[in-house]
Design goal:
By secondary structure, the protein is an alpha/beta fold. The protein has a single domain, classed as Maf protein (Alpha-Beta Complex), CATH 3.90.950.10. It is 31% helix and 22% strand. Strand 1 (2-5), helix 1 (10-19) and strand 2 form a beta-alpha-beta unit. The two termini are 21 Å apart. 37% of the residues are buried.
Length: 198
């Protein structure tokens, strides 16, 4: 079964396909659909942005779409960067620039007040329905990046119960405990499939 995954982020596409390994579901990225209109992610919530992406892509392709909006909510910053996680430093920010901005914003904040959570919201859009799958994982923010795997804020985020960042834990462990994994487990259950031993 083919779905469009409404992202051009190759790391995210690879991660989600690995989470669906052992099923007959395969995700294709937006790089295979170059003529799609740009989606402006200007919603106030992850759910609004996920829906906007999924509906726009589905309306232009007719292919079932799953779109995700995800991000990091830091308690000391009032929930920021939130829906602006990918654009925290500026609209065309790289992962490194966003990480540097977060480090700056948290300068002087003690470790015990660096609590945060990663949030993931998927919207599935097809000719039959729209459905949402949500997940989150709590943790805290480091003072400097650690690790080389993953993407986004992974080098700064240590999930509860671990002493290493997502970027240090590597994909096998991350894919068992991440916010995206929690949301995808709900999606797998919806499709009537097991979690493939994850």
């Amino acid at each position: 079964m083919k779905f469009i995954l409404a992202t051009s982020n190759l790391g995210k596409i690879e991660e989600i396909n690995s989470l669906f390994s052992g099923t007959d579901i395969v995700f294709e990225g937006l790089d295979l659909y170059p003529d799609l209109p740009e989606v402006i992610e200007d919603g106030d919530t992850f759910r609004e942005n996920a829906y906007k992406k999924a509906k726009t892509v589905y309306d232009h392709t007719g292919v079932p779409v799953i779109a995700e909006d995800s991000g990091l909510e830091v308690d000391a910053l009032g929930g920021a960067p939130g829906v602006r996680s990918a654009r925290f430093a500026h609209d065309k920010a790289t992962d490194r620039e966003n990480i540097e901005r977060l480090i700056q914003e948290l300068e002087g904040v003690p470790p015990e007040k660096r609590s945060a959570r990663f949030v993931s919201v998927f919207c599935m859009c097809s000719d039959k329905e729209e459905r949402y799958f949500e997940g989150y994982v709590k943790g805290h923010i480091l003072g400097s990046p650690r690790g080389t795997s993953g993407f986004g804020y992974d080098p700064l985020f240590v999930p509860d119960g671990y002493d290493r960042s997502f970027a240090e834990l590597g994909p096998d462990i991350k894919n068992k405990v991440s916010h995206r994994s929690m949301a995808i487990d709900k999606m797998l259950s919806y499709f009537g499939r097991s979690d493939s031993g994850r």
